[in-house]
Amino acid sequence: MKTLLLGLAYRSQYLIVATALTLAISACTKSESSEVGKISQNVETDIPRLANGKPDFSGIWQTTSAADYDLEPHANRRDAPPSTGVVEGKYLPYLPEALEQKKINFERRHELDPALKGWTLGVPRGIYYPEPFQIFQREKDLIIVHQFGHSVRTIFTNGTDHPQDPYDWWMGDSRGAWEGDTLVVDVKHFNDKTWFDRAGNYHSDQLHVIEKWQFLDKNTIEYRATIEDPKVFSRPWTLSVILHRHREKDFQLIEDYRFTLDYDEFYPPKPPHAQN
């Protein structure tokens, strides 16, 4: 009888402890859920918005990632710091022949990289190139001005579609639509003259990009780009980088025209030497 009573006492204590733990865990879970909800609500209420209620991405932005050196994971080398990469799945799904071309690009990157020639960086490279860019946003469009080469790109958000008989553009043709607070941009009609990074990762004129722009807080944007190019890759792939708002006093874009450097000795024209 004594043994039975002891067993019932221990069981009772166990049930009390178990119940207390369950209540504590439940309280913690509710608290964490509440905190997540508050964070989500804060993001929704704190981010800047246009008069129509859509998020306003206006400002000067720049990434701190090393994506431009090489999208894929890589060790340190003389022309790049080490990085874990920014590609989902780590490595790009090249077709066999395209991979051989990428290897050639890498070996000759110091002479072939379009950025070193001062050419327009293209999409998406212009977004994570290590220089700032500025967004001017209206209800019908976003204008992106890059410091590098002062390239200008327009993302139309007025419901219009891509042109049916387009040229092949350096930055493609961009048409955006809203999914909640996320700006989704469809970009196509590219030429094949830009690279994704300094490591020789490249594309063809069949490049198709789907961008997603979303605030994490009022000064931070998550930028995602899904790449499709059936001439170069076996399947679509996605990269992701974080963009930070410049808040320094008087910060502004500065002209960076690399292709004009060879002519600096001639411009502006120098006055003729004084006659003796």
Structure notes:
This protein has helices at 2-46, 96-107, 109-112, 125-128; strands at residues 59-63, 133-137, 141-146, 152-156, 173-179, 182-188, 208-217, 220-228, 237-245. By secondary structure, the protein is an alpha+beta fold. The chain has a nine-stranded mixed barrel with strand order 1-2-3-4-5-6-7-8-9. Strand 3 (141-146) and strand 4 (152-156) form a beta hairpin. The protein is globular.
Radius of gyration: 26 Å
Q: Major sheet: order of its strands?
A: 1-2-3-4-5-6-7-8-9
Distance between the termini: 128 Å
Mean pLDDT, all residues: 87
Shape: globular
Using DSSP, what is the number of strands? 9
Order of helices and strands: HEHHHEEEEEEEE
Number of helices: 4
Report helical residue fraction: 10-25%
Which secondary-structure class do the elements indicate?
alpha+beta
Compose a concise summary of this entry.
By secondary structure, the protein is an alpha+beta fold. The chain has helices at 2-46, 96-107, 109-112, 125-128; strands at residues 59-63, 133-137, 141-146, 152-156, 173-179, 182-188, 208-217, 220-228, 237-245. It is globular.
